[in-house]
Structures are given as structure tokens and as C-alpha cells.
Design brief:
Structural class: alpha/beta
Shape: globular
Mean pLDDT: 93
Bound molecules: S-adenosylmethionine
Number of helices: 10
Radius of gyration: 19 Å
CATH superfamily: Vaccinia Virus protein VP39
Strand content: 15-25%
Number of strands: 7
Strand order of the largest sheet: 3-2-1-4-5-7-6
Number of domains: 1
Largest sheet: 7 strands, mixed
CATH class: Alpha Beta
Length: 258
């Protein structure tokens, strides 16, 4: 599947659902049924807690889908902006949840948006729920680096519902897909990562990562994790970049040849 196919998949799936089936439209369908209010409440609570969301915050939700998760978070702060590249989902978000000027939704690619927008100063918190795994590795790095570089007041970013490579066997009952398949962003699950892989990716873009898990009553708790990114100092970021370069020299100076 290519990225274009992925967009078409999100679009055609959402269109095939009932216009009010907000969870079904974004494929949140455990055991074939749309996630119920109890599951949604758990998601909203986890995001609110990890982001420490408060009345003065302004939220940037990247890959916001139809806004059904974004809106209850907007309700707990000053609002903000949801961005998604699937036209029908943004249409649903605008129809059902948009309240200008505080709760807005925009049709755009996440990377293009964060790399080009001038509207950066007001955002204090960011969110990417159930979607980061669908960004190609280079795009994922681009998004995290641009947020760190261009959004000066961003304090925390919540990246939720990531497929956990260390617990892939908890999900697949039969054959586990090949390692190559598990690393593809353009599949139904997107990229499976370990917590360590996620931390390394984020560290290279200037973020320190905290991890959390959903309560066991959450339908995907057994094979997914959540990551909250917090700004790292410039010194620590540069150290992460340089480590692979200086490691061989350090080794060879400790064990000199000849
Ligand atoms: C499973 S849905 C999750 C939507 C929403 N965050 C939620 O939890 O309800 C994944 C979303 O990621 C969006 N998406 C994937 N890649 C994207 C990109 N490069 N830019 C913007 N949106 C993207 C899709 O359009 C889709 O709406």
C-alpha cells in the first residue's frame, strides 16, 4: 500500500460508516463494534492527564481525524486547531465540532502544516492520537523536529495508541507478520515500535519521552503504549546526534591497537 492508498483507505472507510458513528469512522472498532463512551472516556482522561491540560492551554492536534477525540480536549482548555489530511474526516469535524474562532479544523498534511505555518506561538500542548504510526519514518522525524524548532511555547506532546513491538505476540494469535511488514507505515497497523525505539526517535528531535499504559479495561491496553514528549535541553539533543559518531573513537582509544 502506498501513502496515497492509505489516504484513500481512511477516506473510503469513513464514508462507508454512519455519519454519526464517529469512532467507527476512524476504525476504532474493537471486536468489530465501534468503541463505546467508556473507551472514549478512558482515552480523553489519559490525554488530559499526560498533557496536564488546563484552561490556559491551546492544543494542536495532528492527525485529528473527525475531531471526536479532539473536541473533549478542546473543551478542557482554550481550544486550538485539529489538522488531518483526509477530506471527509475534516468535513465531519467541521460539521459537528468546529466552533470558530476557538475550535478549528484544517485539511492538511501534518508535516506540511508544522513546517510551513506561521501560527506557532499560541500552541502550548500537542496531540497525535492513533496516527503517528502511519507517518513514514522520515515524516515522523520531520514532524517532531519541526515542532521542537518552530513551536516555541510547546511544553508537552502526547503520542497515543502506538503498537508495541515488544508485545506484538499479544495481538496476533497465529503467524506474526515479518519484521519488514511490522516496520511499514502504510499498513492497517502502521509501524510497530518498542518504547526504546520511540525514545531514540524523539531524543534525536529534541524530546525526552515518558511512557504510560492504558488501564487494563481499555480494549488495546495489552499491545499498545502511549508516549509523552517533553522538551530536552539543546546539549542533550546534540549529544544524542554525536553519540554514534564518537562511539567508535571512544572504543578505539580505550583499546588501542598495536
Ligand atoms: C486512526 S485515525 C485517528 C484519528 C484521531 N486522531 C482519533 O484518534 O480519533 C488516523 C488518522 O491519521 C490521519 N493521518 C495519517 N497520516 C496523516 C498525515 N500525514 N497528515 C495528516 N493526517 C494524517 C488519517 O487521515 C486519520 O484520520
Amino acid at each position: 500500500m502506498s501513502e496515497v492508498d492509505l489516504t484513500l483507505l481512511f477516506e473510503s472507510h469513513a464514508r462507508s460508516c454512519d455519519p454519526n458513528d464517529f469512532q467507527g469512522q476512524v476504525m476504532r472498532t474493537p471486536y468489530g463494534k465501534s468503541a463505546g463512551p467508556d473507551q472514549v472516556a478512558m482515552i480523553v482522561a489519559a490525554i488530559g492527564k499526560a498533557l496536564d491540560i488546563g484552561p490556559h492551554d491551546v492544543l494542536l492536534d495532528l492527525c485529528c481525524g473527525n475531531g471526536a477525540i479532539t473536541d473533549p480536549i478542546f473543551a478542557r482548555c482554550r481550544g486550538g486547531l485539529g489538522v488531518d489530511f483526509t477530506p471527509y474526516l475534516i468535513e465531519v469535524a467541521k460539521t459537528n465540532f468546529e466552533r470558530s474562532p476557538d475550535r478549528l479544523y484544517l485539511l492538511a498534511d501534518a508535516l506540511e502544516y508544522v513546517e510551513t505555518t506561521d501560527d506557532t506561538k499560541r500552541f502550548t500542548k500537542a496531540l497525535c492520537y492513533g496516527a503517528f504510526q502511519y507517518l513514514a519514518e522520515s515524516k515522523a522525524i520531520g514532524v517532531l523536529a519541526a515542532l521542537r524548532r518552530r513551536v516555541p511555547n510547546l511544553q508537552r506532546m502526547f503520542i497515543g495508541n502506538l503498537p508495541d513491538l515488544d508485545r506484538v505476540g499479544n495481538f496476533f494469535e497465529g503467524d506474526i507478520p515479518s519484521p519488514d511488514e511490522l516496520k511499514r507505515h502504510d499498513t492497517l497497523f502502521g509501524i510497530w515500535r518498542t518504547e526504546q525505539e520511540m525514545a531514540t526517535l524523539a531524543a534525536g528531535c529534541g524530546w525526552r519521552t515518558e511512557f504510560s499504559r492504558m488501564p487494563s479495561a481499555f480494549h488495546a491496553a495489552h499491545y499498545r503504549f502511549d508516549a509523552t514528549l517533553v522538551k530536552r535541553s539543546l546539549k542533550n539533543t546534540v549529544t544524542t546526534w554525536l553519540r554514534p559518531i564518537w562511539r567508535p573513537y571512544r572504543r578505539s582509544s580505550r583499546f588501542p591497537r598495536g
